[in-house]
Amino acid sequence: MAEGLLTGTLGNQGSVPVVEIPAGLAGPGQFGNRELSRTGHTRWIRICHWIMTVSVLTLAFSGFFILMAHPRLYWGAVGNDLTPALLELPISRNFRHSGWEPSIPFYADAGSPVSAVRTYDILNENSWGRSLHFLAAWILVVTAAVYVLSGIFTGHARRHLVPRFGELAPRLLWQDLIGHLRLHIQPTTGGPPYGLLQKCAYFAVVFVALPLMIFTGLAMSPTIAAAYPILRDVFGETQSLRTIHFFVFVVLILFLVVHLLMVIMSGFKRQLRAMTFGN
Amino acid sequence: MNKKQVITSRRTFITGLASAGGLLLAGCSKTLPPTYGNVLRMGDVLTYKAHRLLLPTQSLVKEYTHREISSIVAIGTTDPADPRQPAFNAANGAIYDRLRSGGFSDWRLSIEGRVARPGSYSLADLKRFPSRTQITKHTCEEGWSAIAEWTGVPLRTVLESAGILPTARFVNFHPFDDQPDGIDMLDALHPQTILAYGMNGRDLPVPHGAPVRVRVETQMGYKSLKYLQRIVVADEFDDLGKFGALQNGWSWYAGI
Questions:
Q1: What confidence score (pLDDT) does residue B63 get?
Q2: CA–CA distance from A197 to each of A4, A262, A266 (Å)?
Q3: CA–CA separation, A43 and A72 (whole Å)
Q4: pLDDT in tens, B3-27
Q5: Given CB atoms, is B67 within the 8 Å cutoff of chain A?
Q6: Most buried in the list A51, A89, A275, B2, measured by CB within 10 Å?
Q7: Cβ–Cβ gap B205/A114 under 8 Å
Q8: Which of residues 13-52 of A touch B (CB under 8 A)?
């Protein structure tokens, strides 16, 4: 998921920034010929990529079913059908269902919290949905850990994923963006080096979105939140976590769509071969 | 020929794997929920084992202030005497109806199984134990959450008064509806696991489990069983048959 799509170099900008970087920023002998040489994806990247692809798709599928059971999002610790929602999604027959007995207040004062009995038979596939979600999450967490650690220790992350300081000039970003919008996508070379926006996208997915998904997911667990309240303090309370989890999911789906589009436009067969067989 | 050989060796391999798995299962079947060979249940067991191995035990869940008490929906069985409800049990439903019309004064909670002094406790008996009041968050597997104040007696207090035998590992709850479920001894002895008879400063309402429900604050809401009738302490894991969570396709452990 994280790696190797969006691989077309854009117009003539893709590799230019590498050349433009002042020697001082690069560090002695860290890249140079090696950076410019076109290398295929290494084996551990290919294996991790496909395992993560399967687990992320499974997570998206099961996560969507889980969301269908209660298609309402909230902020804070509390959120249910008797409290106001931040967002209601018309994605199942549970959306705004009216199967409720009249509300009964707990206290005499106005504005008292209330309770109501649900009479509606909701759609709920969470028995397998939740277990499948957590199984896929286990696989993703283990693979992502291998991927990130290997990426850091082999220098792959530093060489190919982290945008260099000199690259992040607004002019270069703008040029790359315009290149993408004009769909000037060059045929793939079957691996790194990557274009500027491409690097930014991979970096954001690997080092921001995936960790955010994992930590907001973990912090929703009552057992884990009890053991490590710091997770709740950093990322927020249950319903905020659930809402963040949902919006990062949306971002990842957008990434997936653009990623696939770029793979197709830069040579679908070639890309698939490069990410599967490494050449 | 070649293909046949591959198949044979694959079959041998699978047989070997299955028997190894069988041995493994036989070794664990009494202390872990069964997987029935289902890959989802294997993931559930992995989560359960990982939580028990990696997390500090008996951490307390957050307790909230009175001001933070929220509205809360009542779902699942909301009246065990109502034959239209999915988990309705005719015999128990009739008993429940009779007990309710008597204000639950004849209700008894039976504590059975691996305890030194099996017996039954009336509502008044439970209220004579030192009580605990906690304002906690109920998190439902469906995705919603609510904060309420629960008053009751720690399950630990009741179990210890009945005398937990040293080999006991699980505590199973049998309610008036057909939805029995259980927890391990670690959660049963958790200081915030209580047998609640009060909610938001009044008697526990019928839709929320009257007269007594268990609150398992470290797990999802569906483990906090309502309408308790019997508590059975056990040495070995019991999936509680066709009405138990496991045979209905749900994870037995719901700490996540």
A1: 98
A2: 13, 12, 15
A3: 42
A4: 444 444 545 545 545 545 544 544 4
A5: no
A6: A275
A7: no
A8: none
How many residues in total does chain B contain?
256
Structural domain of residue B244, as residue ranges? 50-248
The position carrying tokens 């406790």 is B121
Mean confidence (pLDDT) of chain A: 87
- Assigned domain for B67 exists: yes
Share of chain B above pLDDT 90, in %: 88
Average pLDDT across chain B, whole number: 92
pLDDT-based confidence at B108, cuts 50/70/90? very high
Tell me the percentage of chain A whose pLDDT exceeds 70. 86
Measured between CB atoms, does B208 come within 8 Å of chain A?
Answer: yes
How far does the CA of residue B254 sit from the closest CA of chain A (Å)?
Answer: 9
Parallel/antiparallel/unpaired status of strands B202-203 and B194-199? antiparallel
> For chain B, what is the domain count?
1
CB B183 within 8 Å of CB B171:
yes
Of A66, A70, A127, the CB nearest to B249: A127
Q: Give the lowest-confidence range in A14-18, B139-143, B249-253.
A: A14-18
| Domains in chain A: ranges and CATH | 16-25+38-92+123-277 (1.20.950.20)
Q: What would you report as the CA-atom Rg of chain A, rounded to the nearest whole angstrom?
A: 23
Predicted confidence at residue B31, as pLDDT, reads 87
Contact between chains at B61 and A226 (C-beta distance less than 8 A): yes
Structure-token pair, residue A67: 């969301």
Residue of chain B minimizing CA distance to A127: B250
User: In the prediction, which pLDDT does B29 show?
Assistant: 46
Q: Which of B39, B41, B73 to mutate to test the interface with A (most CBs of A within 10 A)?
A: B73
